[in-house]
Structures are given as C-alpha cells and as structure tokens.
Queue: 3 jobs
Job 1
Amino acid sequence: MIILEMCWRFFLTGLFAVGGGLATLPFLTEMSIAHPEWFTQEMLVNMVAVSESTPGPIGVNMATYVGYTVAGIPG
C-alpha cells in the first residue's frame, strides 16, 4: 500500500511541477514534512545531489532513491 501511495504522490508531483526536476523541490519539501518516514529534509538535500550527478531525469532519480530507501527493490 505504501508503494502505491508513493507512486501517486510522485505522479502528482511530476504532473504539477512544470519547469524541470528542480521545480519539484517545493513539492518534495512538502512531502518530506508530511511523510518524514519516507525521507527527511536532510535526505532531500542528498537526493538532489545524487540526482544531479547521475544520468537521467532528476525526478526519476529522486523517485527511485525514495522508493529504494523506503521499500527496497520493489520500491
């Protein structure tokens, strides 16, 4: 159930954040406040650093990071 909720939240973030991966930061900050068990604001800073340094879209890299951190391989 938690994986479905995470997918839904990241889907909404991607849907409403127009302007690239860094435009999702306000949505992700709000998500870290609403769900600190998923990721903290300190982890958000690490997510941005890792997502910027790895190839691929920033949003996909962030969602992958959170999914793996929370639920392991299925996440």
Job 2
Amino acid sequence: MELKLHVPDMACSACRDTITAAIHAIDPAATVQADLQTKGLEIHTTAAEATIRQAIQRAGYTVQEG
C-alpha cells in the first residue's frame, strides 16, 4: 500500500530519521521517502494506515493527509 502523508512539524533530518525509525519498528520492510521542504512522506508498507499514523504520532509528530 502507498501512503502519502503530510507531517507539518517534520523540520530536519533528525525528524525524518525519527519518523522513519518509528515506521520501520512497525514494518521493517517499509520504504519511506521524506521531503523536508514540502514536509511530505511517501510510504510503501504492508501495515495498516492507522497503525502507521499512530507510530508517527507516538514519535511526537502531527500527521495530516498528503
């Protein structure tokens, strides 16, 4: 499944790395592409969207539709 999400408080490479680690904790095979300029995430995963959103939120970030 491909998810496109917007994370308005993703500001730097450390934020990107934290979010990526949170997603990989749920689905180690997921691919995550983050654009710090647009604050967009493109995620290819087999996990449910709600699970991915919760992982990002638990890491301390806001999630919106991409």
Job 3
Amino acid sequence: MTESNKEPGKQIGGDHYQRMAVQPVEFIQANDLGFLTGNVIKYVCRANFKNGREDILKAMHCLELILQLEYND
C-alpha cells in the first residue's frame, strides 16, 4: 500500500476486519502467503468478531487441506 493509501479499502458486510490494528489481508500480502494459509489467518483473526466456532472450524478445514495437499498426509 502506498503511504497515501494505508487503508486496504472498504469492507463489504460488517466491520470485523476494520477493528484490527493490522488487517489480515495486509499481513497475508506482506508475507506472500498462499491461499489456504491466508484463509487460516483470516478465519482465526475474525472468529471472535464474526462467526466464532464456525470460523475456527473453517480454519481447521484449511489446515487439513494444507496437510493433504502440501504434505501428502
């Protein structure tokens, strides 16, 4: 993001990401993380603000996919 545009943009549907000091999308992009790893971070970060248990289950599902697809487990 440029200095003049530190906000990652608008959020459609809620404010759960805008409450965070560092939004997940900024962290994911800055660390060049892949899709599944990015989803894990996103779901864990928003769990307390949005879907709670459901978001943790989604994160766990993504972790299971990482194990299957990247580590042949």
